[in-house]
Amino acid sequence: MTGGGEAAARSDLPLVVHVHGGGFVGTAVQCDWTNSRLAARLPALVVSVEHRLLAPGSPLANAADDGWDVLRHVVRHAAQWGVDPAHAAVFGESCGALISALTAIRDREANLELKAQVLVNPAVDVTGTMFEYPSMTEYAYRPSRALPLLRLFQRLAVPPGADAGAVSPLYADDLSGLPPALVVVPTRHAVADHGRRYAERLSEAGPPVRLSEYPGAKHAFLTLPGVEPQAEAAQAEILAFLRAALWST
Q: In this structure, how many other beta carbons lie within 10 angstroms of the beta carbon of residue 90?
């Protein structure tokens, strides 16, 4: 968890709940650069979720519960955390974007009224159609071996007999009433079309949505500012989007 300003002495900071990516083998530490910059430059309290990793006995539903539980806990104890619960957002990368999208849906059902959601390269379909996208074919084995990793991810995420649709935001029954979304898509990855299609579904359902593609960028580009030249631009776009959303009335 990182914070902007002295959170304990304040009660008006916006809140950003961030969920890391890493294919459910990464950790929140890999996103410290992202979170510390957000916390300092918004300013906001940025809470980083260390969710349960996928394993044979721990499916995606557990990790999704962790993301929701963190948001709900901080909002319910807003004074203790020094935040204004009316100005909150979720932000996730890759599998973390999947958890963030699910959290936004649950937030609407609980009437917590998030101000924004930022979804970076979201893998939002873990159903039988997960691999039926052109980007899956084009980037199955380049620039990384995404396809076998995603197949393992799907097997662990949705055990036999589980409802894949319950953890696939793309197939949620109703996407209306969700907070404005920024969907960031690095184009050189297998799940690029997941993000594009989810942005389309959000737009069709009514929530304001901005689809922002970064041509040539690879999967984890946002966390590699010294390696990926577009990381800084994406960080700046996310910062501007959150600042506008969180400080709006």
A: 31
pLDDT of 147-203, one tens digit each? 999 999 999 999 999 999 999 999 999 999 999 999 999 999 999 999 999 999 999
Q: Is the preceding omega at residue 143 within 30 degrees of 0, hence cis?
A: yes
Question: Angle at CA 71, nearest 5°, toward 65 and 74?
Answer: 130
Residue type, 67: G
Query: What secondary structure, in 3-state letters, does 173-207 show?
Result: CCCCCCCCEEEEEECCCCCHHHHHHHHHHHHHHCC
Q: Which helix (H) or strand (E) holds 92?
A: strand 83-93
* Strand-pair category, 209-214 with 181-186: parallel
CA angle 111–21–18, rounded 5-degree value = 40
116 SS3 class: strand
CB 96 within 8 A of CB 23: no
Half-sphere exposure (CA, 13 Å, Cβ side) for 186? 26
Do the Cβ atoms of 60 and 69 come closer than 8 Å?
Answer: no
